[in-house]
Every structure is written in structure tokens, then in C-alpha cells.
Amino acid sequence: MADKPDKTKFLEVFNKAVDNFIDHYFSRAITISHNDADGISSLNIIQNLLYKMHLNYDYFIYNRSVSWANYLKGILSKRQTDQTAFILTDVGSNLKELVPIIRKRKEKFFILDHHEVEDQINVDSLPENLFFVNPTIYGFDGLEQIAGATLTYMFAKRIKPSIIKQGWLTAIGIAGDSLRSMDKLQSFNREVYEELIDEELIEDKKGLILFGNMHESIKNSLKYSILPFIHGISGESDQKINSFLNTLNINPTTKTIDLTDSEIKEIQKKADIDSYGHYATLPNKFGILKFVFEHALMLNILCFKNISAALSLIQLKTITRYAKSVYSEYIEHLTNNLKTISSELAQYQTEKAIFMEVRGKVPPSNWSDTASFSAVNELFNPDKILFLGGSEKKSGTIKLSIRCSRNFLNKDKDNGVNKIISRIKKELGGVGGGHKLAGGIRLSKASYNILKTKVDEFI
Ligand SMILES: [Mn+2]
Which of 68, 124, 435, 455 is the most exposed place for a label (fewest CB within 10 A)? Predict the structure, then answer.
């Protein structure tokens, strides 16, 4: 984000997409969304809109593991008609791949995405049947300022104002993507968040933030806190945490949300954390699903394990036994992995990068999340870029999760992880991509060895 966002320009494009959707009489709509909490929330908002419009619809989930050409082969039908609308939410910014496909079709495509656009695009030369709404092109931050679900909600609400009742879905999308307490929200995310509070669709609360297990006792919240991950407390034994709380005269079974202000201060002082802020709850849900951050994390986990469980969970008021067990297992592993990362030194460091080869220490399915939460918790030097991963047996390549801290990005707003990955790919090959803060790449072993020696040139 080099300059102040151009809101006027963005709203112009946004309004044009809305007007075209309303004015064109569609008989059918196909929604494609991303396989994460933000994507599923966006999908549900659009489904509610299409239902209200009495439109027939189908939906698909895209996990970005195949090219758009291959993916769409199974979805685009031989018979083309401009009576069909394609709505892509939280995905669709790979225009280099998508534009040639869309140009040959009669259907109208509405892309509502907030991921960074990798290739330089000329917005004025897009096909006429494509309405490309991406606020990052106009200088907005896709994480703090506008989530995929926020953009989708704004779009749907403009078409059917009663969609506001489904606005709570937006809060889940925001929490899932931003990984921050709600006081950090800006711009459209903030406007929508406040609207949802006013409408009593969500509740905004203030207190000790221990994301991961906010709904439980202070003992469990501390033990399984992934944001912040508290060195020396999170991931430790019950005994250790109980004695920590006993020295403060706090009953370990006290619910975290019921702690008094003075108890919170004691914990902050003794644990050396200043984790205090706003979090959102859902008045119509119960238990863990009441807590927006945990609800979003639950969806993110299920999207990888069992996508249909994720799609049905968002409609439930209480958690299923299956989802609960998947979640506890995940949190336990993640806190353990973060403990490993924060207590062991990196094997290899340069002036600008840290390499952590974690094969054998962290299971490959957890590399990406371990890297993300290491970054948001600044478990490594925040002035450096983290490369976490190792060799992947099935592909024989090196798989790396790449992360930078917000601190790093604040110093040079245009040098995010997605740019670093582009430069690596250009010189060393490989496949990958990402956001400003997070991304991933697969490289050959030979390229990885070159990367380790030349990494500072790419950063
Ligand atoms: Mn998103």
C-alpha cells in the first residue's frame, strides 16, 4: 500500500458491478469460493442473496492447488448463455489465467476478491463480461481493511438490504483472515463491524485476549493460547499453569471471560504480556461457536480436514463432537509446534532471512499454520523473513512456507512476501504465491540450496 487508498475509484468499480448484476436478468448463478473461513462465510452470504432473489444456484470450492483452466473444465458447460452469472468470492485474482478463459465465454463473471494481484493488469482492457472488484488495486489492505467476506457482504447488501441479517457471517470471515483482535480493524472492515454491533448481530467485548481457547477456563485458555503464544506458559503442563495461577490467587477454573480487571492485570504482569483488546461473540450460537475467532479457526481447520463438515458447521448453533475433537487435536499440536519453534534456534540464518528445517519436528500438514502463528507472534526476529519447511516426500521437492512480520512490512510497504516469491520464481523456478504477509513455494533441492546462499538478494 504505497498511497492512501482511492475509495472513490474503488466504489465506482464496485457500483458498476452491483448495477450490472441487478440490471441483467440472470436465471442461474454459480458461486466459486475459497476453502477457508473467509471463503465459506462469503459463500454463505452469496447463497443467502441468491435464495432471496429466487435464483437457481450451484456452488464450488477452489483450493488453488490446480490451475483455473483445469479447475473450470469441469464446471463450465458446453452450452453457453449470458443468463448465467459466475460469482467468484475470495478467489479469482489470477487474471493472467482467468482472463483468456472468460474472454471466450458468454456468461457474466463477477469477481469479488481481496487477494493481491500478482501480475500488472490493465483494468481498462478487461473483457466486457468480467466485473473485477478487488480493493487492493486501489490501495486497500486486504487483511486489516477489507476481508473477502466484507466485500461480499457489501455487494450482497447493496442488492438486497435484508442481507444485513446474515452479516454475522462477515465477522467470521474478518476474524479468520486478519488474525487480530477486533480493535485493529480499519476502513471497510471497521465500518461493517460497527454496523453489525449496532444491529445486535454480533457483540463486541473487551478483555484479556487468549485466542484459541477464549471460551474455556483461564487454565485452558493460557495452555492453548496461540495468539498470543506465551513463552513458558502456552503448551506447558497443567501443573505448571495451575501453579502460575495459584501464585496469583486466581482459581484456574475461572472462565477467562469472567476474570476481573485486577485479575487480568496480575496475569499480564506476571506473564509479561499486554494482550488486551476487543473480541466478537455471536449471540445466537453457543459454546466455542459463540466466539468469532475460535469459530473462524475451527472452519479454517475443517476446510483442510473435511470440507463438507466445514460447510455445514457454519449453519450450526452448537459444535459437533467430531469438529470439537478435530479442533482440540489441532490446537494441542499447534501450541506444541510453537513451543518447539520458540525454544530451538534456526539451523541457518542470513542477514535478512531465517531458515527453519522442521521435517521430523513438525508434521508437514502443520507447516503452514506453524509458520503463520510464528510470524504473528513474532517468535523469530521480526526484521527477517521466515522460510519454514523441508523436503516433501511425495513430490521430492522442498516445500517452504514464507512469512514476514507486520513490522517488516511497515518499513517497506511494497516489499511483501508475494513480491519476494515472484523474484525467487523468476530466477530459481518453482511454483507458489501468496499475500503480502504470507505465502509458499515449492522448489527443487538444487534451487533450494542456491536460495539459501543467495536469499538476501531476493529480499
Ligand atoms: Mn480471504
Answer: 124
